Amino acid sequence: MKRNSRPPATTTFPDHVVVVPHNTLAAAISTGGSENVEADRIARAETALDQLAANFPEWMHAECDRLAKLRVAARMNSLTDTTRRDLFRSAHDLRGQAATLGFPIAAEAADSLCRLLEHSPEPNRIPMALIDQHVDGIRAIARENVDGRSSIVARALCDRLRQVTDAFLIDLNAHRPDYLDGLIGPTLVPSKTPEAS
Questions:
Q1: DSSP string covering 11-22, please?
Q2: Structure letter (DSSP) for residue 194
Q3: What is the domain partition of the chain in residue ranges?
Q4: Closest by alpha carbon to 104, among 112, 114, 116, 96?
Q5: CATH 1.20.120.160 fits domain 55-183
Q6: pTM of the prediction?
Q7: pLDDT mean over 53-67
């Protein structure tokens, strides 16, 4: 590879120097062909995604079923480090996949459950009723095919789950003020949509 012989651009300030090297990567990038080839690739990818989209609700329901089974296991065996970890992984998967599968509001409820499980220093102090409310809420959103942000009931449910979870976490972590500073922050997705503003 040929090295660039031009020196980088530098700007000197009283307390620091900014060095900006020349961008030589543009010459190394191949566009892969004509615009028609790229448009064809994009069209094929979109067609494949459309074909997969028919399976999204089924996949979402399978993820919800897995979460519900882990909740039952946690109830039967109490909320130990292991059952909490398993519930967290399932909720984490839902948080990451729900929006892609067409259920963005379910992703918010799963985010709240993740926060509850992750930031509670003692798993046995987490009220099972609060876990139930999260799991049942996620399942209801999936069952009712709430796929946008327009459902007033789903929106209210997610907001309330987040409020109750934050209040519980603040109380449970009151003895750790330094931890609380980073704990209570903005939600995964703002509670008000641009249309509602």
A1: EE-SS-EEEE--
A2: T
A3: 9-51, 55-183
A4: 96
A5: yes
A6: 0.69
A7: 89
